[in-house]
């Protein structure tokens, strides 16, 4: 993950970097990786119309303008580790959905 555009967060005593990107209409994706070890990453899908804001402007009353806050990123990191994420080890992306305040692993 590029340092440009990514943000840092400390959870426990570990430092991570994260970024939010568009995924598809009405969906954004949070991508997180360990700052020091370039191991396994997580990708978390969230419902949000934030990317449609300017397309729909000024008719934005019914849009879900969900933004991802650092407190949520911290909760997601903690729960992803509980669900088997090993950020210091190599491995394929782990995929999750963030529904309300619940992290749901996507089995492929």
Overview of this protein structure:
By secondary structure, this protein is α+β, with helices and mostly antiparallel strands. The protein has one domain (7-105). The protein has helices spanning 53-56, 70-82, and strands at residues 7-11, 14-24, 27-34, 42-47, 94-99, 102-105. A six-stranded mixed sheet has the order 1-2-3-4-5-6. The model has no long low-confidence stretch (mean pLDDT 87).
Give keywords.
6 strands, globular, alpha+beta, 16% helix
Spatial shape? globular
How many separate helices? 2
Whole-number average pLDDT? 87
Distance between the termini: 23 Å
**Major pleated sheet:** 6 strands, mixed
Amount of helix: 10-25%
Proportion of strand residues: 35-45%
Low-confidence region ranges:
none
Supply the helix-strand structural class: alpha+beta
Spatial strand sequence of the major β-sheet: 1-2-3-4-5-6
